[in-house]
Design goal:
Blueprint: H1 36-51, H2 64-91, H3 93-105, H4 111-125, H5 131-135, H6 142-166, H7 176-210, H8 223-248, H9 255-276, H10 281-303
Helix pairs in contact: 4-6, 6-7, 6-8, 7-8, 8-9, 8-10, 9-10
């Protein structure tokens, strides 16, 4: 069996890493759109492949020639891949070590600068035929790279969530039940994400400090605080929708419906209040309007014979 020759690619010269932004605020708009789900899927596949037994098990078949042909094809493909990896290891050593030096020297005071650096690093590493297979042959700062990527992905996910909540618009064309359900689902998503972060925040902060990664975005005064404030705005929209529906439900026969939807509004408001640690002035005003309707409803019931 004769394997195809793998032509070595010329050594790559890395582009310079992005310059620091000069202290841009953590909440500034991110113009780089990455797909962390793609990276996570790739990494999960790589981990799964690494655990597989490398031996090929070929089941008995009446067509022995087909099985033999498939086995030879797999060996050729694997050998070609290994040759391509070897070629990169031999030709791209200076390139890899240059990137490693940039990673070791990298230090950030702004999380946005870190995100830009990770984007740059990932783009440079994509030149390699297989990042994991090539880098294991070098003294690569894997721990720091993993920490940088985790921080960048977590920050971008949180910012994406904050934008989703803050930009939410209650569609008046939607029926009330569907609209309230939509807002409730969004709140659940917010709570799950924030509580998951809070459970591991101390450990994440310690890891970030170890590798010179900014931690201000992890604090309540950072992205978490922005998300909580956005949830308060969501509560205001929820209460306004409830108030609008209450106004539309008139007559004694609608009283059970009014009571039910009013209870929904108060429960949602309380849940957000506990999650966010309070309300702003506009949300308090919306809450007072709901509470006023409760008082008005009680007075009406007292006047009934």
């Amino acid at each position: 069996m004769k394997l195809a020759q793998i032509e070595k690619r010329p050594p790559r010269v890395p582009r310079p890493p992005p310059k620091a932004s000069g202290g841009a605020p953590a909440g500034s708009a991110d113009k780089v759109h990455r797909a962390p789900e793609l990276v996570e899927f790739y990494q999960s596949l790589m981990k799964r492949e690494a655990k597989k037994d490398t031996s090929s098990l070929i089941s008995s078949s009446s067509n022995v020639s087909d099985a033999r042909s498939n086995m030879i094809g797999e060996i050729e493909n694997k050998s070609s891949f290994l040759l391509a990896v070897k070629a990169d290891v031999e030709a791209q050593g200076d390139f890899v070590m240059s990137l490693a030096a940039e990673v070791r020297a990298a230090s950030f005071t702004n999380i946005e600068d870190l995100v830009a650096f990770v984007n740059w690093l990932d783009e440079e590493l994509s030149f390699l035929v297989d990042e994991r297979a090539v880098l294991k042959h070098f003294d690569w700062p894997e721990g720091k790279v993993d920490a940088l990527r985790e921080a960048a992905f977590e920050y971008q996910d949180l910012m994406k969530l904050e934008k989703q909540v803050s930009s939410f618009v209650d569609d008046p064309k939607l029926p009330c039940e569907a609209a309230l359900k939509k807002m409730y689902s969004l709140l659940e998503k917010v709570e799950q994400s924030v509580y998951a972060l809070l459970r591991t925040r101390d450990m994440a902060i310690s890891r970030c400090k170890e590798f010179g990664i900014p931690v201000d975005w992890l604090l309540d005064s950072g992205v978490v605080g922005k998300i909580k404030l956005s949830s308060v705005q969501l509560a205001r929209k929820y209460m306004k929708r409830v108030a609008s529906e209450l106004d539309a439900l008139s007559g004694p026969e609608k009283e059970p419906n009014r009571e039910f939807i009013l209870l929904q509004g108060v429960r949602f408001a309380f849940r957000v209040h506990q999650f966010a640690g309070g309300f702003d002035a506009e949300s308090m005003k919306a809450f007072e309007e709901l509470r006023g309707r409760v008082s008005g409803q009680t007075e009406d019931n007292k006047q009934e014979p």
